[in-house]
Amino acid sequence: MSDKELAELRKRKMMELQRQLIESQIRAQQEEQARLEFERQKEAILRRILTSEARSRLANLKIVKPELVEQVELQLIQLAQAGRLPTPITDDQLKAILKRIASSKREPRIIFK
């Protein structure tokens, strides 16, 4: 293989790698935009179905238990969209919901003898 052919092969390989990099960046941007749109829609729905105090409680709880809050938010949205949830949900109602969820999850205990 001549130097010219080798240089051409390297050039093509470099161009292919650049194309793949650009495509992956575009995909990442599209995924981020879709995620942001989903979050925007979720927040809009939560504004309609929760009082400001309940939203504040969820925001505070999200700092400590983000997975739990994500699960609760999605369940509340699904129930509200199905018409099975009285809206708006007050802070006291949200506390009761969170208490029921917390009591249904059993935390493992380590007992030392």
Question: Please, could you describe this protein's structure?
Answer:
With 113 residues, the protein is mainly alpha-helical. The chain has one domain (3-103): PDCD5, DNA-binding domain (Helicase, Ruva Protein, domain 3, Orthogonal Bundle), CATH 1.10.8. Helix content is 80%, strand content 0%. The chain contains four helices and no strands. It has helices spanning 3-49, 52-64, 66-81, 91-104. The protein starts with a helix and ends in a 9-residue tail after the last helix.
What's the quick description here?
This protein is an all-alpha fold. The chain has helices spanning 3-49, 52-64, 66-81, 91-104.
CATH architectural arrangement: Orthogonal Bundle
In CATH, the homologous superfamily goes by the name PDCD5, DNA-binding domain
Distance between the termini: 75 Å
| Total helical elements | 4
Care to count the β-strands?
0
Instruction: Report the average pLDDT across residues.
Output: 90
Counting helices, strands and paired strands, the structural category is: mainly alpha
* Spatial shape: elongated
Percentage beta strand: under 5%
Which consecutive residue ranges, at least 5 long each, have pLDDT under 50? none
Report the CATH topology name: Helicase, Ruva Protein, domain 3
CATH C-level: Mainly Alpha
Order of helices and strands: HHHH
Whole-number total of structural domains: 1
Q: Helicity range of the residues?
A: over 70%
Largest sheet: none
Rg, alpha carbons = 25 Å
